[in-house]
Amino acid sequence: MNLTLKIWRQNGSSDRGRMVTYEVQDVSPDMSFLEMLDVLNERLILEGDDPVAFDHDCREGICGMCGMVINGVAHGEQRATTTCQLHMRHFEDGATVTIEPWRAAPFPVVKDLVVDRSAFDRIIQAGGFISVPAGSAPDAHAVPVPKDDADAAFDAATCIGCGACVAACPNGSASLFTAAKITHLGLLPQGQPERASRAKAMVEQMDAEGFGGCTNTGECTAVCPKGIPLDAIARMNADYIKTAAK
Amino acid sequence: MAVTGAVLVLFLVGHMVGNLKSFLGADSFNHYAEWLRTVGSPALPNRTLLTIAEIGLVVAVVLHMWSAVSLARRAAKARPVKYAARVKPQAGGYATRTMRYGGVIILLFVIWHLLDLTFGVVNPKGGQATPYDRLVAGFAPDRWWVTVFYLVAMVMVGLHLRHGLWSALQTLGLAHRYKALKATSTVVSAVLVLGFAAVPVAVMIGVVK
Question: What number of other Cβ atoms are within 10 A of residue A146's Cβ?
Answer without folding.
Answer: 10
